[in-house]
Amino acid sequence: MPRWLGIDPGEKRIGVAVGGTGVRIASPVGVVPAQPRRAAIDRIRAYAGEYGATGLVVGWPLNMDGTEGPQARQARALAAELAGQTGLDVRLWDERLSSFAADQALAGLLTRDKRKARQDAVAAAAMLQEFLSSGGPETAPGPGDPRDE
Fold this sequence. Notes:
Layout: E1 3-8, E2 13-20, E3 26-33, H1 37-51, E4 53-60, H2 70-86, E5 89-94, H3 98-106, H4 112-133
Parallel strand pairs: 1-4, 4-5
Antiparallel strand pairs: 1-2, 2-3
Helix pairs in contact: 3-4
């Protein structure tokens, strides 16, 4: 069963989740500081090795009209960098509402500080879960694929 890591990039933190295409279940793994970038990529590569991941799916925060704004372009750049540094299959997945889903899942369960620390990993799991449930890599573009806008 191929395993995928879900990567939810942010300016301060990067959420990480793991899931498999066979069972199509995603679970939060952890949060990686986004800076320094090299250390973040090294930690993601370590997670990929630890979980035997064959691919990475990077959250792609498109605008609500489906266009690519600055954050989506940054996510695409991270995906391209991860592809080059890991040699793994890297895909992009529209994650416009994953942080909202994570907030809803954690509401009332944790203190504000603990919820904030966990939110990125839960958002990565929500995004990865949708990716796996929607057909996985067959339905997701790679970082070098052109946009149909």
